[in-house]
Amino acid sequence: MRAAFASRTDADNPLAALTVGEQPEPVHPDDDWVTVQVRASSLNHHDIWSLRGVGLPADRLPMILGCDAAGIDPDGNEVVVYPLIADPGDPRGISILSEHFPGTFAERVAVPRSSLLPLPAGMSLTDAACLPTAWLTAWRMLTTKGRVDDAAAVLVQGAGGGVATAAVALAVAMGKRVYATSRDAAKRARIAELGATAVEPGARLPERVDVVIETVGAATFDHSLKSAAPMARIVVSGATAGHEPTVNLRRVFAMQLEIVGTSMGTCDELRDLLTFCAQRKVRPVVDSVVPFSRIEDAFAQLHAGTVFGKLVVDHTA
Ligand SMILES: NC(=O)c1ccc[n+]([C@@H]2O[C@H](COP(=O)([O-])OP(=O)(O)OC[C@H]3O[C@@H](n4cnc5c(N)ncnc54)[C@H](OP(=O)(O)O)[C@@H]3O)[C@@H](O)[C@H]2O)c1
């Protein structure tokens, strides 16, 4: 079947490790696995890390990439795929599609039947394909980890990214005052259209915030600390710009800050996110929808950092 996969890894030039071509049909490691016909998928920064070899050792190659999918189950139902799989071979006890098990950038993907959630009424498959990784991560950062119900103001760093645009859209829909930084003036203009106050990286905010959404890392972490109100939660799920920031510990204890790490979310949290989006009519921020035949262009755009929101792949085109 047609697929986009890592044929090798390349730490310096990840796009050179991407191949589009034929791969074997999915196999079912267990009786409770099913095959989903993928109708739409979306890119995540995780796919670039995989091509660099982060979390993808040579003995697992070739590996079909892609964490997110929406499609059709064997009974003809429209479904959203929860991408974390129980994995005793991984030290975390779980892995995300495309780490140990083939991913979603293919005509078909195999997953446990329990990983399938019904597509909410009124939601398109292309919108749903944005939610399982970036949006789920942002949802858990805000709710379970950030305890945003108790917050008045939220700061989102690096606002152009998939997780970050999700956090802005969700926090605005929850009625919070949202501040967002981006290096790019055009992205700041677009984030303001979502209802956030957009500022340059490092800018002093008009107030301290109760929750900070951090996926950038070293480039923004000091600003996150300085912008945090007493007892604030700085929730970290990524470090695109470096994972070893300088941390002012005096500020951490004096302001009684919580620095909280998180990864992805549970299947129940994805169900809650789907319900929230359906009921509040919140839809993902989509940069563009590209046909599968142009998936290499989408990878190049993500790598270049020019994306605003999610890049969706239409597997029917
Ligand atoms: N732990 C998890 O479960 C989990 C889940 C999803 C994602 N992640 C991680 O979270 C990060 C974001 O993922 P994503 O898919 O949202 O990525 P993305 O769409 O590529 O967005 C990355 C954003 O980071 C900002 N950025 C990059 N380099 C920067 C720099 N040097 N200085 C300031 N800002 C910079 C950019 O914002 P501006 O251009 O607007 O400044 C960019 O839009 C990745 O590292 C990813 O691996 C982790």
TrEMBL record:
SUPFAM superfamilies: GroES-like, NAD(P)-binding Rossmann-fold domains
Tree of life domain: Bacteria
Cited InterPro entries: ADH-like_C, ADH-like_N, ER, GroES-like_sf, NAD(P)-bd_dom_sf, Zinc_ADH-like
Domain Enoyl reductase (ER): 13-313
A molecular function GO annotation: oxidoreductase activity
PANTHER family assigned: DEHYDROGENASE, PUTATIVE (AFU_ORTHOLOGUE AFUA_2G13270)-RELATED, PTHR45033
Entry protein name: Zn-dependent oxidoreductase
Native species: Micromonospora rosaria
